[in-house]
Design brief:
Strand content: 25-35%
Structural class: alpha/beta
CATH architecture of the largest domain: 3-Layer(aba) Sandwich
Number of domains: 2
CATH class of the largest domain: Alpha Beta
Order of helices and strands: EEEHEEEEHHEHEHEHEHEHHEHHEHE
Radius of gyration: 20 Å
Largest sheet: 7 strands, mixed
Mean pLDDT: 93
Helix content: 25-40%
Low-confidence stretches: none
Distance between the termini: 11 Å
């Protein structure tokens, strides 16, 4: 089969689309013929060697696919996978790397049957982005109707998912993005759109919420964590789910920027958290794979919200898998509005 292989850590041109051995499913695994692949910022970090537990090159990156079940190998724990899947079923799946390929094998409890009406492009845009947002806002954050949330990168993959989920549950939304994405934020229904190039988001939040808000979702890192923390009021939650400041636009690891960001990263002293009555929450979706029953419950809720028209993935750009380097560079250039996906012949 063909796969996009990272030959060494580095910028997007380290990819090689080449023939690799076909995957062989083990007991309890499902073989999937891939139709579309979700491309995430985490994949960029994998390519650079800074994502947690990234394999050593050469390896195939990626965390999610949508496609068709080709083979089911019995012997796992099917009770965790809900209703049994059969060859020919349309599915989405979470992978532990290895997604950038024509075929993948995935543990059965990380494969999700698609509901009627959803295409493969949208399906590949749901697992990583929407599970990250759902887990952050509702499972870890326990946000309630009327609560207020600031979402950084609100026009990106996780950002749009978070905006849609927040609106579905009646939250008030502050959304920060670049100047060319402000119209998108307004169309999404963000209550307070913030141009992060021209406005101080702390000032905007405090203008409309002088006592602070209930949540900030921050994937940026460094000084941004400190400023996001300033936005919190009593019972506030700072959700940290990325550290994008380590990456340059040319797709290389930003060594000076990384060191500077680490020095600027605040130290959250327990007694200060206690005194202010706030929480700092880390969300790493790869770690959530250790809780497949929880993940399946969250995906079931997401599919119900999709069926009800409350959420709809926005696919901003599609690339063929052979153009994987261009797909990564597109995200590095901050051009994506919504999800970037790759299609497989």
């Amino acid at each position: 089969m063909r796969a996009a292989v990272i030959r060494r850590y580095g910028p997007p041109d380290v990819f090689s689309v080449q023939d690799v051995p076909d995957p062989q499913p083990k007991p309890g695994e499902i073989l999937i013929r891939v139709k579309t692949i979700g491309v995430n910022f985490a994949d960029l970090l994998q390519r650079m060697g800074v994502y947690p537990n990234s394999p050593k090159p050469p390896f195939v990156p990626g965390l999610e696919v949508a496609g068709i079940v080709e083979k089911v190998v019995e012997g796992g724990r099917p009770s965790e996978a809900g209703d049994s899947l059969r060859p020919g079923d349309a599915v989405a799946a979470m992978t532990n790397f290895n997604a950038y390929a024509e075929w993948v094998t995935v543990p059965a409890n990380l494969v999700f049957r698609l509901p009627p009406g959803i295409g493969f492009d949208e399906a590949a845009a749901i697992p990583v982005n929407y599970l990250t947002a759902y887990h952050s806002i509702f499972t870890m954050g326990n946000m309630l109707p009327g609560d207020r949330v600031l979402i950084h990168g609100a026009a990106g993959g996780v950002g749009i998912a978070a905006v849609q989920l927040a609106k579905a549950r009646g939250l008030r939304i502050f959304g920060a993005a670049g100047p060319d994405k402000q119209e998108t934020l307004r169309k999404l229904g963000v209550d307070h759109a913030i141009d992060h190039d021209k406005e101080n988001f702390v000032d905007v939040v405090r203008k409309f919420a002088p006592d602070g808000i209930e949540m900030v979702m921050d994937p940026i890192g460094g000084r941004s964590f400190s400023r996001s923390y300033e936005c919190l009021g009593s019972t506030g939650r700072l959700v940290i789910y990325g550290f994008s400041t380590v990456v340059t636009k040319d797709g290389k690891r930003h060594l000076f920027g990384s060191a500077k960001a680490l020095l600027e990263t605040p130290r959250f002293h327990p007694l200060r958290l206690f005194a202010k009555n706030v929480s700092v929450i880390g969300v790493n979706l790869s770690g959530l794979q250790a809780r497949p029953a929880l993940m399946r419950s969250q995906m079931a809720d997401l599919f119900q919200l999709y069926a009800a028209g409350k959420i709809k993935p926005m696919v901003g750009k599609k690339f063929p898998m052979v153009d994987v380097a261009a797909a990564h560079q597109f995200i590095h250039d901050r051009k994506n509005i919504g999800k970037v996906v790759m299609w497989v012949k």
